[in-house]
Amino acid sequence: MVTFVAVLMVWGSTWAQPQSSEKNDDRKKQALAHKTEVLLPDVWLRDQENREIRFPTFFEERIVIVNFVFTTCSTVCPVLSATLQALEKQLQGQLGKEIVLVSISVDPLNDTPEKLQAYAKKLNAGPHWYWLTGRAADVSQVLRAFGIPSGGRPEDHPPVILAGSPHNGKWLRWVGIPPIQSIVDALDVLY
Hints:
Elements: E1 7-10, E2 13-16, H1 20-29, E3 34-36, E4 43-46, E5 52-55, E6 63-69, H2 76-90, E7 99-105, H3 113-122, E8 129-132, H4 136-145, E9 160-165, E10 170-175, H5 180-186
Parallel strand pairs: 6-7, 7-8
Antiparallel strand pairs: 1-2, 3-10, 4-5, 6-9, 9-10
């Protein structure tokens, strides 16, 4: 018996379409997420330790889970950060090797590496959760690449979480606050 694998074009990238039962499993895993295209710019940002991070080569071949916050936020950012905090606990065996967590400031003019470090400390964020800021122009390029408006008021940013694989171009976007398990379940679709 010969089986064929169809190639599905998704916003300019190709994904091998799984066979029927595999396809249904993948659809369930992605039910709350939307496939999206992300073309990451080659810029330098700074992490909470004030280390320069070359975006996107820093991620190598790891899956990246990204959210967008600012340190003085009192509305949705704490909830987004709590979501990544729960993911950090659930994925701790894979963090650093296969997966990294990234929080990008939408307020680079005020969020210094020191402020991000203090914010991360409040959450007991581990060593594989990177908090990024940088020159406003560079952060703006990164935000636009992820489909996040830049240049406006930080409090106007949408609640968004993305998970993706920079090396193969597969990305999923959740708008709002997704259940932790829906993110975890969708990760294997990104490899």
